[in-house]
Amino acid sequence: MKISRIEHLGIAVQSIDAVMPYFQDVLGLEYYKSEVVEDQKVKTAFLKVGEVKIELLEPTSPDSTIQKFLDNGGKGVHHVAFKVEDGVSEALAMCDEKGIRLIDKAPRGGADGLSIAFLHPKSTCGILTELCEE
Ligand code: ZN
Predict the structure, then answer these.
(1) Environment of ion ligand 1 (residues, CB < 5 A)
(2) Range 113-130 average pLDDT
(3) What is the chain's Cα-based Rg?
(4) CA 81–ligand 1 middle distance (angstroms)
(5) Is 116 left (phi over 0), alpha (psi -120 to 50) or beta?
């Protein structure tokens, strides 16, 4: 698999509105997009840090995985997303071959027009890992 860079960091928050002043007014990051991802039951907001993005994730339902993460004491960085240059499907096949537990067996549509798939943190040093391509 060929990873070119970190595409974004996913950060779990209870309220995007509540944390925006920190990201925009203190860090001075540029907000450029908000989007609801229905099947993930999250609202996202994107900010730019150079080429890398910060993806704020707010649960839209009590059974959202983000709400569960927050309820279990999770806070802050929720996942790291890597940009793969040679295809998410190919990367998944390679990970599967190497015994990495997959959350997604095939790529699916994510926020901001990306094709994405997650690897299970049990196989990735505890870091929920997202592979993505444009
Ligand atoms: Zn993400």
Answers:
(1) 10, 55, 81, 130
(2) 95
(3) 15
(4) 6
(5) beta
